[in-house]
Amino acid sequence: MSSSKVARRYSKALLALCDKANSHEQVASELTNYCSAIADHSDVSSFLTNPSMDSDGRKTVLTALNKSLGLSTLSTHFLYLLNERERLEEVPGILEDFRERLDKKAGRLHAKVTSAEPLDKKAIDQLKAALEKSSGKTVVLETTVDPTILGGVVTQVGNVVLDGSVQSMLSNLRKQMLQATQQ
Question: How much is the pLDDT for 2?
Protein backbone atom coordinates (compact mmCIF):
# COMPACT_ATOMS: atom_id res chain seq x y z
CA MET A 1 0.00 0.00 0.00
CA SER A 2 1.51 3.27 -1.05
CA SER A 3 -1.06 5.58 0.55
CA SER A 4 -0.21 7.90 3.41
CA LYS A 5 -0.81 6.92 7.01
CA VAL A 6 -3.72 9.37 7.16
CA ALA A 7 -5.29 7.92 4.00
CA ARG A 8 -4.98 4.39 5.38
CA ARG A 9 -6.68 5.39 8.63
CA TYR A 10 -9.64 7.01 6.84
CA SER A 11 -9.84 4.12 4.39
CA LYS A 12 -10.08 1.63 7.23
CA ALA A 13 -12.87 3.66 8.86
CA LEU A 14 -14.70 3.97 5.53
CA LEU A 15 -14.48 0.21 5.03
CA ALA A 16 -16.07 -0.33 8.45
CA LEU A 17 -18.92 2.04 7.53
CA CYS A 18 -19.42 0.25 4.22
CA ASP A 19 -19.49 -3.11 6.01
CA LYS A 20 -22.52 -1.91 7.98
CA ALA A 21 -24.30 -0.53 4.91
CA ASN A 22 -23.02 -3.20 2.48
CA SER A 23 -22.16 -0.46 0.00
CA HIS A 24 -18.49 -1.11 -0.77
CA GLU A 25 -18.63 -1.06 -4.56
CA GLN A 26 -21.07 1.85 -4.66
CA VAL A 27 -18.86 4.02 -2.45
CA ALA A 28 -15.74 3.06 -4.42
CA SER A 29 -17.49 4.03 -7.64
CA GLU A 30 -18.77 7.31 -6.20
CA LEU A 31 -15.36 8.31 -4.85
CA THR A 32 -13.84 7.45 -8.23
CA ASN A 33 -16.37 9.79 -9.87
CA TYR A 34 -15.54 12.47 -7.30
CA CYS A 35 -11.81 12.15 -7.99
CA SER A 36 -12.41 12.32 -11.75
CA ALA A 37 -14.56 15.43 -11.39
CA ILE A 38 -11.94 17.11 -9.22
CA ALA A 39 -9.16 16.17 -11.64
CA ASP A 40 -11.14 17.66 -14.53
CA HIS A 41 -11.71 20.95 -12.67
CA SER A 42 -8.47 22.08 -11.08
CA ASP A 43 -10.02 25.37 -9.90
CA VAL A 44 -12.63 23.47 -7.85
CA SER A 45 -9.92 21.16 -6.53
CA SER A 46 -7.76 24.11 -5.50
CA PHE A 47 -10.69 25.72 -3.71
CA LEU A 48 -11.70 22.54 -1.85
CA THR A 49 -8.17 21.73 -0.71
CA ASN A 50 -7.19 25.28 0.26
CA PRO A 51 -7.00 25.40 4.08
CA SER A 52 -7.26 29.20 4.08
CA MET A 53 -10.80 28.94 2.69
CA ASP A 54 -13.70 28.89 5.11
CA SER A 55 -14.94 25.36 5.90
CA ASP A 56 -18.58 26.39 5.32
CA GLY A 57 -17.69 27.88 1.92
CA ARG A 58 -15.94 24.66 0.95
CA LYS A 59 -18.96 22.68 2.18
CA THR A 60 -21.28 24.73 -0.04
CA VAL A 61 -19.19 23.93 -3.11
CA LEU A 62 -18.85 20.33 -1.98
CA THR A 63 -22.64 20.03 -1.56
CA ALA A 64 -23.23 21.26 -5.10
CA LEU A 65 -20.59 18.87 -6.44
CA ASN A 66 -22.01 15.93 -4.50
CA LYS A 67 -25.52 16.66 -5.81
CA SER A 68 -24.32 16.92 -9.41
CA LEU A 69 -22.52 13.59 -9.05
CA GLY A 70 -25.50 11.97 -7.33
CA LEU A 71 -23.47 10.71 -4.39
CA SER A 72 -25.05 8.58 -1.69
CA THR A 73 -25.54 9.82 1.84
CA LEU A 74 -22.59 7.76 3.06
CA SER A 75 -20.18 9.17 0.47
CA THR A 76 -21.51 12.70 1.00
CA HIS A 77 -21.10 12.56 4.77
CA PHE A 78 -17.66 11.04 4.42
CA LEU A 79 -16.58 13.93 2.19
CA TYR A 80 -18.12 16.43 4.65
CA LEU A 81 -16.06 14.86 7.44
CA LEU A 82 -12.90 15.16 5.34
CA ASN A 83 -13.78 18.79 4.62
CA GLU A 84 -14.23 19.59 8.33
CA ARG A 85 -10.84 18.05 9.06
CA GLU A 86 -9.20 19.70 6.02
CA ARG A 87 -8.35 16.32 4.49
CA LEU A 88 -10.06 16.50 1.08
CA GLU A 89 -6.66 16.33 -0.63
CA GLU A 90 -6.37 12.80 0.79
CA VAL A 91 -9.36 11.42 -1.17
CA PRO A 92 -7.28 9.88 -4.01
CA GLY A 93 -5.02 8.12 -1.49
CA ILE A 94 -8.01 7.02 0.58
CA LEU A 95 -9.65 5.62 -2.55
CA GLU A 96 -6.48 3.75 -3.56
CA ASP A 97 -6.15 2.17 -0.12
CA PHE A 98 -9.89 1.47 0.05
CA ARG A 99 -9.78 -0.40 -3.27
CA GLU A 100 -6.78 -2.43 -2.07
CA ARG A 101 -8.65 -3.36 1.10
CA LEU A 102 -11.73 -4.34 -0.92
CA ASP A 103 -9.60 -6.50 -3.21
CA LYS A 104 -7.96 -8.20 -0.24
CA LYS A 105 -11.33 -8.78 1.43
CA ALA A 106 -12.80 -10.22 -1.80
CA GLY A 107 -9.69 -12.30 -2.58
CA ARG A 108 -8.97 -10.38 -5.79
CA LEU A 109 -5.60 -9.77 -7.35
CA HIS A 110 -4.87 -7.29 -10.15
CA ALA A 111 -2.42 -8.26 -12.87
CA LYS A 112 -1.24 -6.44 -15.97
CA VAL A 113 -0.07 -8.31 -19.05
CA THR A 114 1.79 -6.54 -21.84
CA SER A 115 2.32 -8.25 -25.18
CA ALA A 116 3.72 -7.22 -28.56
CA GLU A 117 0.43 -8.03 -30.27
CA PRO A 118 -3.12 -8.37 -28.94
CA LEU A 119 -3.65 -11.69 -27.18
CA ASP A 120 -6.57 -13.88 -28.22
CA LYS A 121 -9.24 -14.82 -25.71
CA LYS A 122 -7.87 -18.35 -25.27
CA ALA A 123 -4.39 -17.07 -24.35
CA ILE A 124 -5.86 -14.52 -21.92
CA ASP A 125 -8.02 -17.20 -20.28
CA GLN A 126 -5.04 -19.57 -19.95
CA LEU A 127 -2.87 -16.83 -18.44
CA LYS A 128 -5.62 -15.81 -16.05
CA ALA A 129 -6.20 -19.43 -15.00
CA ALA A 130 -2.46 -19.95 -14.38
CA LEU A 131 -2.26 -16.78 -12.25
CA GLU A 132 -5.37 -17.77 -10.29
CA LYS A 133 -3.97 -21.26 -9.68
CA SER A 134 -0.60 -19.96 -8.48
CA SER A 135 -2.03 -17.18 -6.32
CA GLY A 136 -5.18 -18.88 -5.05
CA LYS A 137 -7.09 -15.66 -5.71
CA THR A 138 -9.47 -14.30 -8.31
CA VAL A 139 -7.42 -12.41 -10.88
CA VAL A 140 -8.56 -9.22 -12.58
CA LEU A 141 -6.45 -9.10 -15.72
CA GLU A 142 -5.63 -5.96 -17.68
CA THR A 143 -4.00 -6.42 -21.06
CA THR A 144 -2.00 -3.86 -23.02
CA VAL A 145 -0.09 -3.94 -26.27
CA ASP A 146 3.49 -2.64 -26.62
CA PRO A 147 5.19 -3.50 -29.92
CA THR A 148 8.60 -2.52 -28.53
CA ILE A 149 8.84 -5.76 -26.53
CA LEU A 150 9.03 -7.60 -29.89
CA GLY A 151 7.35 -10.80 -28.64
CA GLY A 152 6.48 -12.76 -25.52
CA VAL A 153 4.69 -11.19 -22.55
CA VAL A 154 5.51 -9.09 -19.51
CA THR A 155 3.29 -9.87 -16.53
CA GLN A 156 3.04 -7.59 -13.51
CA VAL A 157 1.31 -8.78 -10.35
CA GLY A 158 1.60 -6.21 -7.61
CA ASN A 159 5.30 -5.34 -7.34
CA VAL A 160 6.43 -8.54 -9.04
CA VAL A 161 7.29 -8.36 -12.75
CA LEU A 162 7.76 -11.50 -14.80
CA ASP A 163 9.50 -10.39 -17.98
CA GLY A 164 9.27 -13.02 -20.70
CA SER A 165 9.65 -10.56 -23.56
CA VAL A 166 11.95 -11.11 -26.52
CA GLN A 167 13.38 -7.64 -25.90
CA SER A 168 14.41 -8.66 -22.37
CA MET A 169 15.88 -11.95 -23.58
CA LEU A 170 17.94 -10.16 -26.24
CA SER A 171 19.13 -7.61 -23.71
CA ASN A 172 20.23 -10.38 -21.32
CA LEU A 173 21.99 -12.22 -24.15
CA ARG A 174 23.81 -9.02 -25.11
CA LYS A 175 24.97 -8.50 -21.50
CA GLN A 176 26.23 -12.09 -21.29
CA MET A 177 28.15 -11.74 -24.55
CA LEU A 178 29.75 -8.48 -23.43
CA GLN A 179 30.76 -10.01 -20.11
CA ALA A 180 32.25 -13.04 -21.87
CA THR A 181 34.37 -10.85 -24.18
CA GLN A 182 35.65 -8.76 -21.27
CA GLN A 183 36.96 -11.75 -19.35
Answer: 56
pLDDT in tens, 47-88: 999 888 888 999 999 999 999 999 999 999 999 999 999 999
Q: How far is CA 178 from CA 74, 127, 141, in A?
A: 61, 34, 37
Task: Give the Cα separation of 10 and 88 in Å (integer).
Answer: 11
The CATH class, in words, for 5-104 is: mainly alpha
- For every residue of 87-116, DSSP letters joined together read -GGGHHHHHHHHHHHHHHHHTEEEEEEEES
Q: How large is the average pLDDT for residues 172-179?
A: 85
Query: Domain extents for the chain?
Result: 5-104, 107-182
